[in-house]
Design goal:
By secondary structure, the protein is an alpha+beta fold. The chain has helices at about 5-25, 75-85, 95-100, 125-140, 145-165, 175-180, 185, 195-200, 200-210, 230-240, 290-300, 305-315, 350-370, 375-390, 395-410, 415-425, 425-435, 450-465, and strands at about 35-40, 45-50, 55-60, 105-110, 115-125, 220-225, 260-270, 275-280, 325, 340-345, 440-450. A 6-stranded mixed beta sheet has the order 1-2-6-3-5-4, with helices on both faces. It is globular and about 70 Å long. The protein starts with a helix and ends with a helix.
Length: about 475
């Protein structure tokens, strides 16, 4: 039995968390500085001034990703992201890296369903070289057979390392989408197939750059030691002369919630224990249900205090861990159908049906009883802390602002999301659980070590006798 002293401490902690949540809801909330301007060529520029350090973060986000890559070219948006680092006629291969790293900075890039982002952070003295380099590769690339072949091989090796030769092979973020969605734009493997990657031509590369990498399909965000006036002037200086380009009309990628459960079993030659991925289609971005679903996701899977961890890992001792993800992004960064996916390694003597039943039981409790004020306050406080912590680093802030501007059409959503989180009620969470986390809207992949799968198959007839 827990002692009265510790019970009192626990009650005090809950009231403390409620007070923190109330404080976050007050006028003392941090208002992230956001200034936005659009150049005549359509490039949207976002600046977040912060003079706390002589550093800047820069993010260039293009409104194209895996969802819009050409049919028969799965993985092409990812391949193109790699090609953007292979140089231009004015800045040959290696110049981009050496200039920024030589100035004390670092760079990276990534491809997601709805965007491709290129990020850099450096001392403010290196900002102009960064912008010159970004503008240079927006205008053209070194479209050479050698660069294309080199990066086709690089991406193929990345797939070998991260998917083919890894236990579970990313089935919780690659395979689950191919099973849950119906439209090709949403359900193909954006990481890429070897056959499609090898089929990509220089003509494909040139067309993709022409169609999607113009200034009017991009957002430039700068956060750190710079004023909005300075940032807008530099953007005009380096990007203002680049002409806008015609962007292909976006296809309709919308999908309804699923109406029947989808179940699959996959063998795994490298895994030691079985794993399960359970995914539900999410509400639309910007809808009234988005924030309640994000809060519900944290209630169920947000750390060791979550319902799934306490009920499935600790309580029933069925699983070794539990985690969750929202496609390849977050609960706020998507512009088309996405999934809330729960991923768990579970014990070999446990049946997948037991895992699903345990999850269903925890979801049913929320759907029928809601959540207490104390639990809701704790979860909101955690989510708000994570949100603001993620904006502290200039690089992360610039990237978040650029992505919100691209996906929502308004970088000021960065200050709206905390208010949406705070406004979520227990009734909202119940509604989200009843609407989205249903058996009919669920897709399940049971990923099983080959030996265990064979043992299950051998035991099945005996179980039926």
């Amino acid at each position: 039995m827990r002692s009265p002293r510790w019970a009192a401490v626990g009650v005090g902690l809950l009231f403390g968390l409620a007070a923190l949540s109330a404080m976050a809801a007050s006028t003392d909330r941090w208002q992230v500085p956001v200034a936005v301007q659009k150049l005549d060529n359509g490039l949207t520029v976002v600046v977040s001034e912060d003079r706390s350090a002589p550093v800047v973060g820069v993010s260039m986000v293009y409104h194209v990703g895996m969802r819009l890559e050409p049919r028969g070219r799965t993985g092409f948006a990812h391949l193109f992201e790699h090609l953007m680092f292979q140089g231009t006629p004015a800045a040959p291969k290696g110049v981009f890296d050496s200039v920024i790293s030589g100035g004390g900075g670092r760079i990276n890039g990534s491809t997601r369903a709805d965007f491709t982002n290129y990020i850099a952070t450096a001392p403010v003295s290196a900002l102009e070289p960064i912008l010159w380099l970004e503008a240079d590769r927006m205008q053209t690339l070194d479209f050479s057979p050698g660069n294309l072949k080199n990066q086709q091989d690089v991406v193929k090796e990345e797939i070998r390392v991260n998917v083919q030769n890894q236990p579970y092979g990313g089935f919780m973020w690659i395979d689950i989408g191919t099973k849950a969605f119906d439209k090709w734009e949403n359900n193909h493997d954006g990481y890429g197939s070897f056959e499609d990657l090898e089929a990509a031509s220089l003509a494909d590369v040139e067309a993709f750059h022409r169609d999607y990498y113009g200034p009017n399909n991009a957002v430039l965000a700068i956060a750190g030691d710079i004023s909005p006036a300075e940032g807008f002037a530099l953007a005009q200086k380096y990007f203002g002369h680049i002409p806008a380009r015609a962007v292909p009309a976006r296809t309709d990628v919308s999908e309804d919630l699923n109406t029947a459960e989808r179940r699959f079993t996959q063998p795994d030659r490298l895994a030691q224990v079985p794993a399960i991925a359970v995914a539900w289609k999410m509400p639309d971005r910007g809808s009234a249900d988005q924030a309640p679903m994000a809060v519900l996701g944290d209630i169920l899977t947000g750390g060791d205090a979550s319902r799934f961890y306490q009920g499935i890992v600790k309580g029933r001792e069925l699983a070794l861990n539990v985690d969750s993800l929202y496609g390849l992004t977050s609960a706020w960064e998507y512009d088309g159908p996405t999934l809330f996916t729960v991923f768990s390694l579970y014990k070999p003597n446990v049946a997948p049906e037991q895992m699903l039943a345990a999850m269903d039981e925890e979801i049913a409790k929320v759907a029928s009883e809601g959540v207490s004020a104390e639990e809701l306050a704790r979860v909101k406080t955690r989510m708000l802390a994570d949100w603001y912590n993620g904006l502290e680093m200039f690089l992360s802030r610039a990237d978040a602002l650029a992505k919100l501007q691209v996906l929502w059409g308004d970088a000021n959503v960065v200050n709206e999301i905390p208010r949406r989180i705070e406004a979520v009620t227990s009734a909202d969470v119940q509604r989200a659980a009843r609407t989205y986390l249903t058996g009919e809207n669920r897709t399940v992949i049971d990923r099983v070590p080959e030996a265990l799968l064979q043992a299950r198959a051998s035991a099945a007839p005996a179980a039926g006798n």
